[in-house]
Design goal:
Largest interface: A-C, 47 and 62 residues
CATH topology of the largest domain in chain A: Rossmann fold
Distance between the termini of chain B: 54 Å
Number of helices of chain B: 10
Bound molecules: iron/sulfur cluster, FE2/S2 (inorganic) cluster
Radius of gyration of chain A: 19 Å
Mean pLDDT of chain B: 91
Order of helices and strands of chain B: HEEEHEHEEHHHHHHH
Strand content of chain A: 25-35%
Shape of chain B: globular
Largest sheet of chain B: 6 strands, mixed
Number of strands of chain B: 6
Shape of chain A: globular
Oligomer: heterotrimer
Strand content of chain B: 5-15%
Low-confidence stretches of chain A: none
Helix content of chain A: 10-25%
CATH superfamily of the largest domain in chain A: Nucleotide-binding domain of ferredoxin-NADP reductase (FNR) module
Strand order of the largest sheet of chain A: 10-9-8-7-11-12-15
CATH class of the largest domain in chain A: Alpha Beta
Radius of gyration of chain B: 19 Å
Number of domains of chain B: 2
Mean pLDDT of chain A: 93
Number of strands of chain A: 15
Chain lengths: 280, 267, 347
């Protein structure tokens, strides 16, 4: 008799909306085929899932929508490998697989009463978008909310429609930037690499939590800037990405030292990273 | 052995090579690859009948290459042919490798094209006895029997890829089995996946296999897997009069077009 | 239950095994194929090999097969239908006979690992249907090091029945579990009840080269030690050590077929392969072999101990016996515990 559920069996999801974000980058809005499953499904900001195109395989990315909005799940991905390529060819109405949520969460409850500083680069806004919306939906909990977001070029910025919305909000501050040479004539954001912009902005570290997501190189150069601004390693949060298959701590490929990114992560403080070997 | 030690000592002392890849004593009477970089370590080198594994495989390893060419390799006739073949395939250049060989009870260091080629031609690969045994066995079989034989043998394969890792001519940075766009070869070690893998392997080594037997020695489940590539190479030898590993400038047998090709489909 | 003890002659034991097959059980035991020893389905008990130190392939296939179909899908008229193979799995009741005690310990740890947390209906169901009859070791070779990793040549953990060869072609046996009891019951008179005996004299003695604590302590700060590079120069990065290891559990998930119809498989994978950790971006956190060799040793002797308070190795020696480059794990561990100088834990 089988007493354990097959964790590898995905939920079936229908793609209800597809948004072209940037070259090679798309957002899918997904709804559970089985309404009951959808009703009982919960997750928290920071968690990820395995998305499948049956016959091609699974791919890992974060849930990009906010847990406060329960009608759907959104994910944003860049077309890079076999599975993401197959995903990119899907159309509205098609069915894909989804299993999760996996991993730990941003301890957003512990951030009550603090300033939040979000720093994101490139395609790494999605993991952050989830927690940004989560924070905006619970706006009273926090003091100042600042978002610094950069991409290689204007075309590479994702969630442009939301960036416009955020820039018009008075209860938050949004700074967008593109790498030098990536600007268009009508670009009215900043020009410069994310770490440089952070340095110029000099956000206060007092009572502030910094959440940093981006390509490894951006993270590498942003941490020292934050430290210089007085952020302590335990006030800096980030997410790690390692190659994953199972998502549940069994397949053995995502570990960084004794820590499994799929199970013990993907959210880590800089303090935690300092104690780990640099194997990511 | 004394001669080898003297040669090795000399090479390191004169800084003529960065490392000597050779054989040393291993576990329970086995020999194992050793990497000699200091004069004190030279004494670890052994050279006897147990030294059969093809050490040229290490010439492809990034960590070893990092020591810097030239590198010396203690070589069997098969190793020499491998190095010649790797030169022909532009994986190595003349001068990268100091090839230490035994000839008439002396140890020689071959570096130049002519020396390498001459040694390769004069010293055919001697199959380890188990390979000869299996070849004899297979020759006696009918086609059906052979198919059954391979089905049974390959049923053991769990795709550890030790055969690939042990083969000095399997140096592709991205092996066809690892390509997933499109997925040419099934990854799973089920019968289809295993057959696909080995057919591809044999085809990719056809006309290139040096017949060193390293893959068979490496296979943990005892499949005489070298037989496939040896046979494929024998066919290339007969059909195209091409022997790998004896000419540093040889073109590749299977990717060379000749106007007098006897197959019509290609013209 | 109290442990029942018995004796049985070799001949009667073979009869019992013949009978298990006759009543429809699957019998898996060590048999020779060519020069190597495998655990395979046995029809004729005469083919069972008794005189060996350790098999070449481990018996882990029985709970964690090299290929496990997990899911099938079919696309039809805009809908996707899934078949859950965990629900379809009906493993035959299987007697695994003739395992060495280290393998039985390894299997129990492997099963425990898969069942922990989210669980695994495949491993679970296979394990439930498995009865393990082990034979204690009267011989060992220099690759064996069970006693150094907290396992003994007559370890009873994981076995349902443990047999020890004693004089006059007889075995002394202990029934350890209900499943073991059922097996012995079916054997009827062939098993002769016996007083508990001390059979230590028959068991091989194996020197303890180091202790699990010693290795774990030494490895705690060893990540950046130059030893990894030196020790792994001859490693060619095949998957042999991991595929023959009874405890290595890393796997890959692969889809086969087309988007219209296909299967999702779980296949063995190895931390020794460069592809294992390769990101789609081309970045590889473990891009050279020494990093992958370090992962294998650290995983078994540092990370698993930190996370689960046990070692990921039972000292069966297979990885070393079969390594084409003669990477001898016992020797490496001796070097780590005896010779490795301390290095500062810097990044
Ligand atoms: S070494 Fe043997 S088991 Fe491993 S992949 Fe090659 S043939 Fe298969
Ligand atoms: S295929 Fe086998 S026999 Fe041929 S060169 Fe490679 S390792 Fe040697
Ligand atoms: S240690 Fe040996 S068996 Fe393991 S990957 Fe290296 S060469 Fe292969
Ligand atoms: S690591 Fe080696 S010795 Fe330890 S259990 Fe695995 S195969 Fe056996
Ligand atoms: S993704 Fe499988 S262990 Fe983390």
């Amino acid at each position: 008799m089988m007493s354990t559920k097959n964790v590898y069996k995905p939920y079936l999801m229908r793609i209800v909306k597809i948004i072209d974000e940037a070259p090679g980058v798309k957002t899918f809005r997904l709804q559970f085929l089985n309404e009951e499953e959808g009703k009982s499904f919960t997750f928290k900001a920071g968690q990820f899932a395995e998305y499948s195109v049956f016959g091609e395989g699974e791919s890992t990315f974060c849930i990009a929508s906010s847990p406060t909005r329960r009608e759907f799940i959104e994910c944003t991905f860049r077309q890079t490998g076999r599975v993401t390529k197959a995903l990119a060819q899907k159309e509205e109405g098609d069915i894909i697989g989804f299993r999760g949520p996996y991993g730990n969460v941003f301890p957003i409850d512990e951030w009550k009463g603090k300033n939040l500083l979000f720093i994101a680069g490139g395609i790494a806004l999605p993991p952050m978008r989830c927690v940004i919306w989560n924070a905006l939906d619970l706006r009273d909990w926090f003091e100042n909310i600042t978002v610094i977001y950069g991409a290689r070029s204007v075309a590479d910025l994702v969630y442009k429609y939301e960036l416009t919305e955020w820039s018009q909000r008075t209860d938050m501050k949004l700074i967008t930037t593109v790498d030098p040479g990536g600007e268009t004539p009508d670009w009215n954001g900043r020009v410069g690499f994310v770490p440089t912009i952070v340095e110029q902005e000099e956000p206060s570290s007092t009572n502030t939590i910094a959440i940093v997501c981006g390509p490894p190189i951006m993270i590498k150069y942003t941490f020292p800037v934050l430290e210089k601004l007085g952020f302590t390693p335990n006030a800096i949060f980030t997410t790690l990405e390692n190659r994953m298959k199972c998502g549940v701590g069994k397949c053995g490929r995502c570990n960084v030292g004794p820590v499994y990114v799929c199970k013990d992560g993907p959210v880590f403080t800089y303090e935690q990273l300092l104690a780990l070997p640099a194997e990511y | 052995m004394k001669q080898l030690h003297e040669r090795a000592h000399e090479l390191l002392e004169q800084k003529a090579v960065s490392v000597i890849i050779g054989y040393g004593e291993g576990t329970e009477g086995r020999v194992r690859p050793v990497f000699i970089r200091t004069l004190e370590a030279v004494r670890l080198l052994v050279w006897d009948d147990r030294c059969r594994v093809n050490l040229a495989v290490y010439l492809n390893k990034p960590e070893i290459r990092k020591f810097g060419f030239p590198i010396a390799v203690v070589s069997t006739p098969a190793t020499v042919r491998t190095i010649v073949q790797l030169i022909a395939e532009h994986q190595l250049s003349i001068g990268d490798v100091v090839v230490l060989v035994r000839e008439n009870d002396t140890v020689r260091a071959l570096i130049q094209k002519e020396d390498l080629e001459q040694y390769a031609r004069n010293n055919p690969v001697i199959f380890p006895p188990f390979v000869i045994e299996e070849i004899e066995l297979l020759k006696k079989m009918s086609i059906e029997e052979r198919f059954t034989y391979w089905q049974e043998e390959l049923a053991k394969c769990f795709k550890c890829y030790a055969c690939r890792a042990a083969c000095p001519l399997c140096y592709c940075e991205k092996c066809i089995t690892d390509v997933n766009q499109p997925q040419w070869v099934c990854v799973a070690p089920h019968p289809v996946g295993v057959f696909e893998w080995h057919i591809n392997r044999a085809m990719h080594l056809a006309g290139r296999c040096i017949e060193c037997g390293s893959c068979t020695i490496a296979c943990p489940v005892g499949i005489p897997i070298a037989l496939l590539t040896i046979e494929a190479t024998r066919v290339v030898k007969e059909e195209f009069a091409f022997t790998p590993g004896i000419d540093c400038n040889a073109p590749s047998a299977l990717s060379t077009f000749r106007v007098d090709d006897k197959e019509t489909f290609i013209r | 239950m109290s442990h029942r003890t018995f004796t049985i002659t070799h001949e009667n034991l073979l009869d019992v095994l013949t009978n298990t097959i006759a009543v429809g059980n699957r019998l898996v035991a060590p048999v020779r194929r060519g020069k190597k020893l495998f655990f395979r389905d046995v029809q004729e008990v005469q083919s069972i090999v008794f005189d060996f130190i350790q098999s070449d392939e481990s018996p882990k296939d029985l709970v964690f097969p090299r290929v496990e179909p997990m899911l099938a899908h079919e696309y039809n008229a805009g809908n996707v239908y899934l078949i859950d193979f965990a629900e379809k799995l009906q493993p035959l009741p299987t007697i695994l006979f003739g395992t060495r005690p280290c393998d039985a310990v390894a299997l129990s740890l492997l099963i425990e690992f898969f069942n922990e947390g989210v669980g695994d209906p495949f491993v679970e169901q296979r394990a439930e249907n498995l009865t393990i009859i082990s034979i204690a070791c009267t011989r060992a070779d220099s690759y064996c090091f069970c006693t150094s990793v907290g396992v003994s040549p007559n370890d009873s953990r994981g076995s349902d029945v443990l047999l020890t060869p004693i004089d006059n072609d007889q075995y002394y046996g202990i029934v350890l579990t209900e499943k073991g009891n059922a097996f012995v019951k079916k054997g009827g008179d062939n098993f002769i009840p016996s007083e508990p005996k001390d059979v230590a004299q028959y068991i091989v003695t194996l020197r303890e080269e180091f202790t699990p604590q010693e290795i774990t302590q030494r490895l705690a700060n060893a990540f950046n030690h130059p030893l990894w590079m030196d020790a792994s120069l001859r490693c060619i990065g095949c998957g042999t050590c991991t595929y023959v290891c009874p405890l290595c559990s890393c796997f890959d998930i692969q889809d086969e077929g087309t988007q219209t119809k296909g299967v999702r498989l779980r296949c063995w994978d190895s931390c020794g392969f460069s592809l294992f950790t390769l990101h789609t971006s081309g970045h590889n956190p473990r891009h050279i072999q020494s990093e992958r060799w370090r992962q294998r040793v650290m995983h078994k002797f540092s990370y698993i101990p930190q996370n689960r308070n046990l070692l990921g190795c039972v000292g069966c020696g297979r990885c070393s016996r079969l390594c084409p480059a003669d990477m001898n794990l016992k020797e490496h561990l001796c070097t780590i515990t005896k010779e490795m100088t301390e290095v500062k834990a810097d990044r």
